[in-house]
Prior knowledge:
The complex is a heterodimer of chains A (183) and B (100).
Chain A lengths: L1 H18 L5 H21 L3 H25 L15 H21 L12 H9 L4 H22 L4 H5 L18
Helix pairs in contact in A: 1-2, 2-3
Chain B lengths: L2 H21 L3 H25 L4 H32 L13
Amino acid sequence: MLVVFVILAVIAVLAGAMVFVVDSMARATYALAVSFIAVGVALLVLRLEYLGVITILMMVMEMAIMAIYMIMFMGMNPALMPMSMVHGKRAALGAAIGTFLLLVVGILLVPWPVRPEPAAASTQELGSALMGSKMLVMMTVSPIMFAAIVAGVSLASARTRYDRFGDDLDHAPTDPQPGGVGR
Amino acid sequence: MTLQLVLITAAAIFCVGLYGALSQQVVVMVMMGLELMINGVLLAGGAVWWFLAPAPTGQVLVLLILAAMTLEMAMGFAVAVLLHRQRGTDMTDMAGDLAR
């Protein structure tokens, strides 16, 4: 189990680093996907069957979407035209290494409690907790997700009703071409 | 396998993501850095469940991190679309009005 985890840990960290090393955007996305899959399998090693599987499924899909966005938005492709796409590299590197050292010192110094008995059926426990004592968590997450849908659409939409009807919504619609049902 | 080993791995992933989020110029690459940071937090949450809190609370925490990650992704892409439409850019340096 230790060997498997060490291999997964090395893959996860190296693939994560590759994201910012490789030139091609598509390769960076794949590297991030590999890092997520390694973490998902590590969660499986920790017997979090359900969470490990949904991590892998969600992240593979998310990286597929991300690859599309990369191709849509990247005006210049560093794979075709090698260039540096970073700023403040030294400060960022310093902050990252400093944070890592701080975290490692904290991890090694904290007197962690001894492990209690591990749970037997983790997925079943999670399901009954979500439908019982932890239901409030999901009840809180769902309106936040709905708010994110609304915010995402209103941020990303090109012409809203305020563009069409004016700030007070009392103008005739200024559409480039009349349409609809003729009202 | 010890708790410390898993947490140090998580810290390493988190800090690689931190470097990316701070240093990258392209908005989508900054988001990849943030995703990597949350990836580390995810692993740390799993470790806390396995080693410290076998009650389902730890799992709910991991589920919450996953939800936060998807929301970050969705809002990040919305902002990227807005930035691209308003400025025709995909770089953070060209959207630094508030920093000045």
